[in-house]
Amino acid sequence: MRILHVEGGRHLYGGAFQVLHLLRGLAARGHDNWLACPQGCALAQAAEPVARVCGLPMHGDADLLMAVRLRRLIRATSPDLVHLHSRIGADVMGGLAARLTGVPAIHTRRVDNPEPPWLVALKYRLHDRVIAISEGIGRVLVSEGLPASKLRIVRSAVDWESYARPCDRGTIRARLGVPAETLLIGVIAQLIPRKGHRFLIEALPPLIEAHPNLQVRFFGQGPLATDLQRHLADRGLSGHVQLAGFRDDLAEILPCLDLVVHPVLMEGLGVSLLQTASAGVPIVASRAGGIPEAVREGENGVLVPPGDVPALRAAIGALLADPHRRRALGAGGQSLMAREFSLDAMVEGNLAVYRELISRVV
């Protein structure tokens, strides 16, 4: 089977990393991958061993010429189907290009951001199937008017064994600039408003008073970096909270965290939560979007209402005070990832949708 994948993201995290996992799994099963992505993006280099990479100009939702470029690529590569992995213009322009060439198109929806019904009616008409990475996203899409007959659920996955490694506590704590005996919380998310960093900042002062050795690291990058730095300084928290940026050593860092907090307002599923659970680290997260599928109350973490600072503070405080419970939740997360979020399950789920479309066309 020949599949043309289209991914508009420029950084190799989140959705783009899921695309890489899928490409590797498909290639291992003997399928022919082509990948259209922004010129020079991180995914392009990583995907070269498992796909024929076509770097294209991709300028977002307003890039009308993207449809022309993708139509030309579809005609040149003659794929059995087109799989559109992102928004950033790829969903609409890729759908138009596939429609113009008569090739079946699948769009994977990774976020639960609400869309107006008129947009849902127009945009998803271009796609033969829509894959949601969580039941939560699927419910949002159907509530906004997507025909249930078009919807399929294929959860994101994680190579959980690559995160289930021992913690070299001394080395990692030294790398992060914190003492070995520190209680260390991580937040792994882009620095954007909907990720909810501000709620954790509001919750912290009493927690630091109770645990003076508490340190927090925000792993990620984004447009809120300067504002967050200023907010931390204004509240006198700079000595306890630091922005650590995007890390390529996260698999080494994660097992050495005592807790990961994910205080988002909305989330499709949360790949960082899958990675965290794989590393055996307990989680406090918002009960939003698809998160309850990745963070099971009492099994690998604690869920709180989005934006509820007192509930967030109470959940974090309870876990910081109970190392035995933290260890139990960490072990539960590793078991959950191995059982329900394997790479093989994700690849086979996508393949099932591909085969369904191709058999329909044939």
Q: Tell me, what's the shape?
A: elongated
**Count of strand segments:** 13
The average pLDDT value, as a whole number, equals 94
Number of helices: 15
Q: What is the N-to-C succession of helices and strands?
A: EHEHEHEHEHEHEHEHEHEHEHEHEHHH
Q: What's the alpha carbon Rg, rounded to whole Å?
A: 21 Å
The CATH superfamily title of the largest domain: Glycogen Phosphorylase B
Helix content: 40-55%
Strand content: 15-25%
Defining traits:
Rossmann fold, transferase, 15 helices, 13 strands, alpha/beta, 362 residues, 2 domains, 7-stranded parallel beta sheet
Short summary:
The chain is built from 15 helices and 13 strands.
Give the topology:
Blueprint (H helix, E strand, L loop, with lengths): L1 E5 L8 H14 L3 E7 L3 H6 L4 E5 L8 H13 L3 E4 L5 H12 L3 E5 L7 H7 L5 E4 L2 H9 L7 E3 L15 H8 L6 E6 L8 H14 L3 E6 L5 H10 L6 E5 L4 H4 L5 E4 L8 H8 L4 E4 L4 H4 L6 E4 L4 H12 L2 H18 L2 H19 L1
Parallel strand pairs: 1-2, 1-4, 2-3, 4-5, 5-6, 6-7, 8-9, 8-11, 9-10, 11-12, 12-13
Tell me about this structure.
The protein is α/β, with parallel strands linked by helices. The chain has two domains: 2-157 and 342-361, 3-Layer(aba) Sandwich (Rossmann fold), CATH 3.40.50.2000; 160-340, 3-Layer(aba) Sandwich (Rossmann fold), CATH 3.40.50. It is 44% helix and 17% strand. It has helices at residues 15-28, 42-47, 65-77, 90-101, 117-123, 135-143, 169-176, 197-210, 225-234, 250-253, 271-278, 291-294, 309-320, 323-340, 343-361; strands spanning 2-6, 32-38, 52-56, 81-84, 105-109, 129-132, 151-153, 183-188, 214-219, 241-245, 259-262, 283-286, 301-304. Strands 3-2-1-4-5-6-7 form a seven-stranded parallel sheet, with helices on both faces. Helix 3 crosses helix 4 (90-101) and helix 11 (271-278) crosses helix 14. The protein is elongated and about 65 Å long. The two termini are 13 Å apart.
